[in-house]
């Protein structure tokens, strides 16, 4: 589970982050919006830099901005461990990946709900993570778009076992199981964690449901799984 800060109470950020961190969350999802790529503005560099002093979590920045190249360095200096850019925003994704790597962070590429897997074919082997949007980016609290699940399944088979597959938007107690079963292994949840009176309890419940779904069948397809002997 990667709790998304977007749904936190911004007047109590330290406390909210400390709560999920103490409960075992390892990834904090940071939604950066510029009011251009998406019709909303969230938070940016100073907020992340302040939180960095208070948290040891893995800072996963989701850059919903038109010029990720321009702002990558200040986000890394602010303390991000990982940067995800949107494939829709760049003309030379290979150069973006190279630049992010030169800054010492891991790299993700994100696809909007209707952006096809083919759009990242040329660079997919070079990223650490693919982020499938299961809502249109810009706002928390939207309804899960189940039509993206076949894309998650295709990507799970396409990705190597070391590459993460993240899903973001509308993940809650009703949708987390199908997202995990389709093969997503980083599940972002904003409203369904910080939007609840007991964020830690809510996060643990989502984690339990996801694990149960994977155990119950389907689950992650191992692309390099050993073939039966005698094959
Ligand atoms: C939407 C963001 C999401 C958002 C998810 O643009 O990328 O990370 O926080 O919020 P929920 O979980 O409420 O759909
Ligand atoms: Zn996000």
Number of helices: 7
CATH architecture: Alpha-Beta Barrel
Please identify the structural class as seen in this structure.
alpha/beta
Question: What CATH first level would be assigned?
Answer: Alpha Beta
| CATH-derived topology | TIM Barrel
Q: Could you tell me the mean pLDDT? A: 95
Distance from N terminus to C terminus (CA atoms, Å) equals 37 Å
Question: Overview of this structure, please?
Answer:
This protein has seven helices and eight strands. It is α/β, with parallel strands linked by helices. It has a single domain (2-217), classed as Alpha-Beta Barrel (TIM Barrel). An eight-stranded parallel sheet has the order 1-8-7-6-5-4-3-2. The radius of gyration is 17 Å and the shape is globular. 40% of the residues are buried. The structure holds D-xylitol-5-phosphate and zinc ion (ZN). Zinc ion (ZN) binds next to strand 2.
Summary, kept brief:
The protein has seven helices and eight strands.
Structural key phrases:
7 helices, eight-stranded parallel β-sheet, 231 residues, globular, binds D-xylitol-5-phosphate, 18% strand, alpha/beta, 32% helix, 8 strands, TIM Barrel, disordered C terminus, binds zinc ion
List strands and helices in order, with pairings:
Layout: E1 2-3, H1 13-22, E2 27-33, H2 45-52, E3 58-64, H3 68-78, E4 82-86, H4 93-102, E5 106-111, E6 129-133, H5 149-158, E7 164-168, H6 176-182, E8 186-189, H7 199-215
Parallel strand pairs: 1-8, 2-3, 3-4, 4-5, 5-6, 6-7, 7-8
Helix pairs in contact: 2-3, 6-7
The structure holds D-xylitol-5-phosphate and zinc ion (ZN).
